[in-house]
């Protein structure tokens, strides 16, 4: 597993961005998140050692987790990234995006029905954005599709969009002022996935977590561990 952030910086564009960890982290460091710029790791996938082997090992590469791979300000750089992704067929590049409506304008000329080594995760957080973004996502030529429902800020129904989806990840919001996550919403999405035979992962609880009509205040460090303790992940039948 590797991380690759060819550029940094982002701009809020969705209801789920309100308490974005990128903006919070940059604010603590006195960094302007609105400045989108290349990083020193831009060419990381194709950098080589003295013996000519790639520095970055084969496997999953989490891509642009401190920004958005489809952000407009990176349009001039993305073509080079696609070339590196195409070269590193031994790696699987996974990226999340809140800008799935830009996807068709951002793919390379030889994309056709998608690259085998690219996983695209469309991020949604409420019913309005789910209906808009997942309708687009369902029609796009992508070999490996996932849906990230994080932060989940209301009950949503995505069952009709689950055809062709390999995994749905659900999680709550992490912030002192975070919007609450109701466990019933999580279980409902899980049932939708089971009916459609789509893998499901409960990635993290929310800071304000509701279960059986009782609200709990959880520490950030415990959010992922508490979600794992629920033991509700589902692996699809192949």
Describe this structure as you would to a colleague.
It is built from 5 helices and 12 strands. The chain has 238 residues and is an alpha/beta fold. Strand 11 (208-211) and strand 12 form a beta hairpin. The mean pLDDT is 96. The chain is 23% helix and 23% strand. It starts with a strand and ends in an 8-residue tail after the last helix. The radius of gyration is 18 Å and the shape is globular. The chain has a 7-stranded parallel β-sheet. It has a 3-stranded mixed β-sheet with strand order 9-11-12. It has a two-stranded antiparallel sheet with strand order 2-3.
Task: Write a compact overview of the structure shown.
With 238 residues, the protein is of the alpha/beta class. 23% of the residues lie in helices and 23% in strands. The chain starts with a strand and ends in an 8-residue tail after the last helix.
Apparent shape: globular
Largest sheet, described in full? 7 strands, parallel
Low-confidence stretches: none
Binned, the helix content reads 10-25%
How far is the N terminus from the C terminus? 24 Å
Strand order of the largest sheet: 1-4-5-6-7-8-10
Could you spell the SSE succession in H and E letters?
EEHEEHEEHEEEHEEEH
What structural category characterises the helix and strand content?
A: alpha/beta
């Amino acid at each position: 597993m590797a991380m690759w952030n060819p550029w940094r910086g982002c701009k809020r564009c969705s209801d789920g961005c309100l308490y974005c960890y990128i903006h919070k982290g940059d604010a603590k460091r006195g960094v302007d998140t609105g400045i989108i710029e290349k990083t020193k790791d831009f060419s990381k996938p194709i950098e080589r050692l003295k013996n000519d082997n790639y520095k970055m090992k084969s496997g999953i590469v989490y891509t642009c987790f401190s920004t958005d791979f489809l952000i407009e300000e990176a349009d001039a750089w993305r073509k080079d990234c696609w070339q590196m992704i195409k070269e590193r067929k031994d790696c699987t590049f996974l990226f999340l995006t809140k800008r799935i409506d830009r996807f068709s304008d951002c793919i390379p000329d030889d994309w056709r029905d998608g690259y085998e080594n690219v996983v695209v995760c469309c991020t949604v957080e409420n019913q309005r954005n789910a209906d808009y973004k997942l309708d687009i996502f369902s029609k796009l030529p992508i070999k490996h599709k996932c849906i990230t429902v994080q932060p989940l800020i209301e009950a949503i129904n995505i069952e009709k969009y689950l055809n062709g989806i390999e995994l749905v990840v659900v999680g709550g919001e992490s912030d002192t002022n975070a919007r609450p996550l109701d466990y019933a919403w999580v279980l409902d999405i899980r049932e939708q996935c089971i009916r459609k035979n789509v893998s499901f992962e409960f990635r993290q609880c929310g800071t304000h977590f509701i279960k059986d009509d009782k609200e709990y205040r959880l520490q950030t460090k415990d959010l992922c561990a508490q979600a794992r303790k629920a033991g509700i992940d589902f692996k699809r039948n192949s």
